[in-house]
Amino acid sequence: MIREVMSAMVTRLGHQAVCVGDGAGALELALEASAGADEFDLVLLDLELPDRPGTEVAQALREQGMTAPVYGISGHDGVTERCREAGMAGNIRKPVRMDAVEAVLGVARAHRELGDDELVRVVIEGLRAELPTLLDAAERTDDVVELRRLAHTMRGALRYVDAPAARAAAARLEESAKQDEFEPEALADLRKAVDRLIPSLAELL
After folding, report:
1. In 1-116, where does DSSP find H-type helix?
2. Helical (H) or strand (E) element with 46
3. Which of 92, 94, 111, 112 is nearest to 102 (CA)?
4. What was the pLDDT predicted at 205?
5. Residues 36 and 123 sit within 8 Å (Cβ to Cβ)
6. What is the CATH number of domain 2-96?
7. Which residue(s) pair with 90 in the sheet?
8. How does residue 31 score in pLDDT terms, banded at 50, 70 and 90?
9. What is the value of pTM for the model shown?
């Protein structure tokens, strides 16, 4: 069931998902893709696969040179350290939420751009610290020039993560401010998207 749910979420968010039923299949498929031109941007592994632990699969992928981010999926607490030791970028908790999947896909984009797990963590921490402050300032200001600057900065800050709703709202807000206008719907949409994104990013650190 978890495979079908995850696949549907990933597809709903505009990405393509390929699913397998066990660790051997995941290892074979991921390494085959890595050897060709279609390496996966992201690997999601249940920690309790039928034939072996997901951490074992992640470790094997790293030993074979796979660089794409790998995230574990578990319904248990206290697994983050185990995931990190196996070479995973982090873990997401069951029951898996759509916003958590969206955040992980965002991290995959950041990894494509930066190519380094540590730099990705720096970007995530920066977004968590910067976005709410910028958004609060945008909601307080009545100066369209300042609003345009804030919207532009937020749109730029979001460029490393796959957060289309937030980026689209920031772009609309910036464009309206360029016309010396204020679009409250764009600001409200941006607030909703950021409020959904930030807690999910926090879970990935």
Report:
1. 2-12, 23-35, 54-63, 80-85, 98-114
2. strand 43-46
3. 92
4. 62
5. no
6. 3.40.50.2300
7. 71
8. confident
9. 0.71
